[in-house]
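Following the same procedure, sequence and fold were stored together, as reproduced here:

>
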Amino acid sequence: MSPQTPHLTRQLGLLGLTATGICSMIGASIYIVPFMIQRNVPGIGPYVLPAFLVAAIPAIFAALAYIILASAMPRAGGSYLYASRAIHPYLGFVASFSQWFGLSIVIGVIAYVVVPFFRDVAVALDWLDLAEYLEKPWIRVCLALSFLWVFVYVNILGAKFYERTLIPLMILMFALGGIVIVSGLSFDHSDFLAALAEKEGRML
């Protein structure tokens, strides 16, 4: 009797796997980065959306490279497997560790800067008490840590619960991302300046 080879069980469906890929590529930064750029770099308004489109070009090539590698080496392991087989196991470790470390930093930064995004939404809705509450440093840190640990707990609960959580989040991400894109196409920097003069009395 031949020994059984170990293999991973398939627990994610096609929709869950697609949601994982989409959410890991887009994430929450699509809501934060355009607004932060608009607020801190005057006159950049018309160039934000073309910049995202230009940035999509290398992302497409990276996706094609991963498709080719996954077809050639259909095993679990990701970047570690590809780099270790093609170059050297140590370089595979460096590639996978660097990717993990970079993503860990990005997740922490996004969790921290998403709180001011909620604060700005509260200001826009005239919920000034909530906005002032979200401005406190200890509240900001505690909320960021809460976001991180909630999703850690979701992963601990298993793939099925993860899938049931991630798919609605992907739909919400597309809905909110659509609002950001439509707003970017509907308003330019002069509209932002007019709103700033009306709300805060500031002229740039």
Notes: The chain has a mean pLDDT of 79. The radius of gyration is 21 Å. Residues 89-124 form the longest helix (36 residues).
